[in-house]
Write a structure and sequence with these properties.
The N and C termini lie far apart (114 Å). It is built from five helices and nine strands; from the N terminus they run H-H-E-E-H-H-E-E-E-E-E-E-E-H. The protein has a domain of 136 residues: Pleckstrin-homology domain (PH domain)/Phosphotyrosine-binding domain (PTB) (PH-domain like), CATH 2.30.29. By secondary structure, it is of the alpha+beta class. Helices cover 23% and strands 26% of the residues.
């Protein structure tokens, strides 16, 4: 009779708190539920802490939010315009910010990021003209956009050099409003376009030549 009592005593003792004499407060699954909270590793000591923690409880490392990336010059002007408060600018209003004023009845056809003579900017096409605007924030001394009339366009071809494609345009006369003498001439090279934009702009210009 003694042995069964000893065994029962050992089992019961395992569920009683030695300090309070009450059943231990081990809720089933409590530890597992705590482990399910998202964690992150401290980059300083490599210990795991809660994902929402702003300071590591082991080494004191402070978690700071990543800095907001600074826009590159290639997207500076367009990003600046798009960040303006509501209401959003229309295409025509955006062109006015670029320094482009459309003639009566002139309609915009598209705008693409590109590069001319090593300068990043925006290629703007209307049903009458093609413009190139430098990627600068609007200012009083902003250079005037380079422009050509489409009725002066005599050729448009895609050339590939060193695995990079460029759109070469041929005109009858010099570039209007070109402040740099190097931009004047009968040819205009546009590179830096993504392939789909290059194909789209090329097709629009060819259609203009064929319909002239």
């Amino acid at each position: 009779m003694l042995a069964p009592c000893l065994c029962w005593h050992r089992v019961y003792a395992g569920t009683v708190s030695q300090e309070e004499g009450q059943p231990a407060s081990h809720a089933p699954g409590a530890a597992a539920a705590e482990d399910q909270r998202p964690k992150k590793a401290c980059p300083d000591c490599a210990e795991l802490v809660l994902a929402a923690a702003r300071k590591c409880r082991y080494c004191g490392y402070e978690f700071r939010p990543a800095p907001t990336p600074t826009p590159t010059g290639n997207e500076g002007l367009l990003s600046f315009l798009l960040r303006r408060g509501a209401p959003r600018l229309t295409m025509t209003e955006t062109l006015v910010q670029f320094g482009i004023e459309l003639d009566s009845g002139e309609q915009p056809a598209g705008m693409w990021l590109g590069r001319v003579q090593g300068s990043d900017g925006y290629v703007v096409l209307t049903d009458a003209r093609l413009f190139f605007v430098l990627a600068l924030r609007p200012s009083a001394d902003m250079p005037k956009p380079q422009q050509h009339r489409l009725d002066e366009l005599v050729g448009a071809e895609v050339v590939t050099r060193f695995w990079k494609s460029a759109l070469v345009l041929h005109w009858r006369g010099p570039v209007a409003n070109a402040s740099d003498a190097n931009l004047s001439g009968v040819s205009m090279n546009i590179d830096g376009l993504v392939q789909k934009d290059l194909r789209q702009l090329h097709a629009l210009l060819l259609a203009r030549i064929e319909g002239a």
